[in-house]
Task: inverse folding
């Protein structure tokens, strides 16, 4: 059984399997926080790290909504820069923009994680105040992203293939409960996975809760979707 | 050879390399062509390209001829000699007269001389700090390569390296991303199937997984395949495990 590192393990700096993939971005760039997510070409997503709660929520929101700069960075393989979140147009991610209002975010930069010709995910960097990521810093960010690419993919594979892996709040990885809840709601509503997931997503959005926390209620059987008014 | 005609040959070679790299290319064809072109431009008689394999041993990938005399010398070159020195140090090694240096690499020198090669020139294939192989040119006459020749050989080798890496990267990254997608998609199906079982039969998630895994093992199916059947409600994995 493989455990996710949740504490200040003294071996963390020596064992590359435990290195924090977010930290290199924080060390070398003028940012407040970072998250790293692997996204497959089918859109399946694995959250690998987030340096703080805001970074974690930015990543989670984009997972929940299926939109946001990290999706664009992954799809296009190019850097997405929002040096001033308050004045950006956000036309590619309107719901994401509306949802991050409460978070104290001044700037967002999504950096594609490229492996050869293929983009395997994105690092989303944020600043609590507006500010540019100049060209040198963009190059640095891209260089860090390539340097962590193969480790990121290996880790995502481990999260996907290990049957007993434990996911932590800090590293939700595949957010397995969301997919389990989707399966349960499929039965509750006799629907497809797409419909079931949309209902889960819609319910969370309307209630102002995270999809993961609603999913946990479904899995714990404290929330049953066929009992809900449509 | 005049500087002009060499310049013309060289720029023609670069145009050809650039063309090769943007279209669908076969890396072995490219390397054969490169070593032939280098042999011609640098006025040598034979050449061969050694690339390091996954366990760090140099392997013969391309040569100007498949004749035993050259192939055997090149295979020896992977074990000792200027090609290996070039690979280890990452710098070009030019040996103007094999007879003078025979003591340094006895086996390689004896074989090269026996086959009629009197000078050998090895150029590293470099990627940043890493050396991925060497391009080796053999001549039947003595004489070192001058710095201009070495620069020409290195320039051609560098472009070839880009080609080799491009192919390796495209191949390996597409395999890795295909594996990644498969692993993630399978996992999502398995989790959804656990949810379906939990809702239909009241099982815990863990028992649901045990049922899926047992069914997969008993029927020699993949977990993802069984999960797919559970989600589509075409497989009943809850009864199948009883008594097995």
Result:
């Amino acid at each position: 059984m493989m455990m996710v590192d949740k504490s200040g393990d003294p071996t963390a700096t020596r064992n590359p399997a435990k290195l924090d993939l977010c930290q290199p971005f924080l060390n070398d760039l003028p940012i407040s926080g970072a998250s790293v997510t692997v996204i497959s070409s089918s859109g399946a997503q694995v959250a690998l790290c987030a340096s703080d709660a805001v970074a974690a929520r930015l990543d989670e929101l984009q997972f929940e909504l299926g939109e946001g700069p990290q999706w664009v960075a992954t799809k296009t393989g190019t850097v997405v820069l929002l040096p001033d979140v308050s004045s950006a147009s956000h036309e590619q991610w309107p719901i994401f923009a509306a949802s991050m209002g409460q978070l104290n975010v001044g700037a967002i930069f999504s950096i594609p994680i490229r492996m050869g010709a293929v983009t395997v995910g994105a690092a989303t960097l944020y600043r609590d105040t507006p500010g540019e990521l100049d060209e040198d810093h963009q190059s640095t960010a891209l260089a860090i992203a390539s340097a962590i690419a193969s480790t990121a993919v290996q880790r995502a594979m481990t999260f996907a293939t290990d049957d007993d892996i434990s996911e932590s709040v800090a590293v939700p990885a595949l957010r397995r409960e969301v997919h389990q809840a989707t399966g349960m709601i499929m039965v509750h509503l006799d629907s497809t996975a797409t419909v079931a997931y949309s209902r889960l997503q819609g319910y969370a959005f309307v209630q102002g809760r995270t999809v993961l926390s609603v999913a946990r209620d479904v899995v714990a059987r404290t929330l049953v979707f066929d009992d809900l008014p449509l | 050879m005049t500087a002009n005609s060499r310049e013309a040959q060289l720029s023609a070679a670069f145009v050809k390399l650039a063309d090769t790299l943007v279209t669908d290319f076969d890396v072995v064809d490219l390397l054969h062509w490169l070593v032939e072109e280098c042999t011609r431009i640098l006025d040598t008689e034979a050449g061969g390209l050694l690339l390091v394999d996954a366990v760090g041993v140099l392997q013969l990938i391309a040569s100007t001829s498949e004749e035993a005399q050259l192939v055997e010398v090149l295979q020896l070159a992977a074990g000792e000699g200027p090609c290996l020195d070039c690979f280890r140090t990452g710098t070009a090694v030019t040996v103007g007269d094999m007879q003078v240096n025979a003591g340094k690499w006895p086996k390689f020198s004896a074989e090269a001389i026996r086959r009629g090669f009197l000078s050998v020139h090895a150029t590293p294939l470099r990627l940043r700090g890493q050396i991925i192989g060497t391009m080796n040119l053999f001549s039947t006459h003595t004489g070192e390569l001058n710095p201009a020749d070495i620069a020409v050989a290195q320039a051609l080798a560098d472009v070839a390296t880009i080609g080799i890496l491009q192919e390796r990267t495209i191949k390996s990254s597409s395999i890795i991303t295909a594996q990644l997608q498969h692993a993630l998609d399978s996992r999502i199906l398995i989790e959804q199937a656990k949810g379906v079982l939990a809702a239909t039969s009241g099982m815990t998630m863990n028992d649901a997984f045990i049922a899926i895994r047992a069914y997969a093992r008993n029927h020699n199916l993949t977990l993802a395949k069984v999960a797919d059947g559970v989600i589509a409600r075409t497989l009943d994995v809850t009864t199948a495990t009883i008594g097995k």
Summary: The two ends of chain A are 42 Å apart (CA to CA). Chain A touches chain B through 34 residues (CB under 8 Å).
